[in-house]
Write a sequence for this structure.
């Protein structure tokens, strides 16, 4: 039996069968190639996914180590919160604090009273009102004659000052005078029990400290440390004694001379005899 193809060629059953087998063989090869490609692609994707998952997945941690890390993070967070909320003041020599204050008085604290916040922009926080008995005024005559009350923030984080209100202990108080005439004191002011002041500090309150308000007192923390201007005094307590309020802060004042230069002066003998030039520690 013979069959005529559409192209007009003659094919026997054997040739047709051979062609079908050939086409079937090519089809099977194509399918195998597709399957191999699919398997390779699937394997590659699975390998990538596994490696990505392994790299991203958190590793198991020792329970003790996990607890320690958590505790450390908690303590660090609390410490940062304390630093944010705490009052911080730049170190300043007592003379500088006296010069920067509008009011300097010696007084006893008679009583204290907590004042609630008000709508007044100057009193938006809870305050402590200290009733005082003024003993002597060293600075502030031109604005106030007699001070009866001083105010300080209630919270220590806002630099509030805690004083003994027993009408016995005397304090040196320095502070600022607000627009409404009220006196504000805080931890960054120079506030000390009167009995803790040295003889030189008490004498310097009358005139010497204010004689040196045109001088600049610079703190030395490390060497080299040298003056940068003729009217500058170097404060070396930290460098020599490893504490800020050491011998120099307690016994010396930085005084301006007639030629415009400034030098340390120790209270006691006349000015011209006791100048001490400390330009290099």
């Amino acid at each position: 039996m013979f069959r005529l193809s559409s192209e007009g060629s003659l094919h026997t059953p054997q040739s047709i069968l051979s062609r079908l087998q050939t086409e079937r063989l090519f089809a099977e090869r194509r399918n195998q190639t597709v399957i191999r490609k699919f398997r390779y692609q699937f394997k590659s994707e699975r390998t990538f996914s596994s490696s990505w998952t392994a790299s991203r997945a958190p590793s198991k941690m020792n329970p003790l180590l996990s607890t320690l890390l958590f505790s450390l993070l908690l303590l660090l967070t609390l410490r940062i919160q304390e630093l944010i909320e705490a009052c911080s003041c730049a170190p300043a020599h007592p003379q500088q604090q006296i010069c920067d204050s509008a009011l300097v008085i010696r007084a006893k604290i008679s009583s204290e009273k907590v004042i609630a916040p008000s709508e007044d922009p100057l009193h938006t926080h809870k305050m402590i009102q200290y009733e005082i008995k003024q003993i002597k005024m060293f600075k502030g005559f031109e604005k106030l004659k007699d001070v009866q009350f001083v105010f300080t923030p209630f919270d220590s984080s806002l630099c509030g000052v805690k004083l003994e209100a027993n009408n016995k202990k005397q304090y040196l108080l320095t502070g600022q005078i607000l627009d409404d005439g009220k006196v504000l004191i805080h931890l960054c002011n120079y506030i000390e029990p009167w009995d803790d002041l040295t003889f030189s500090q008490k004498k310097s309150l009358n005139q010497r400290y204010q004689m040196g308000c045109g001088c600049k007192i610079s703190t030395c923390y490390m060497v080299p440390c040298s003056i940068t201007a003729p009217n500058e005094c170097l404060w070396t307590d930290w460098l020599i004694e490893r504490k800020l309020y050491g011998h120099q802060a307690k016994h010396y004042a930085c005084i301006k001379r007639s030629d415009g230069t400034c030098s340390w002066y120790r209270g006691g003998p006349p000015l011209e005899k006791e100048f001490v030039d400390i330009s290099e520690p």
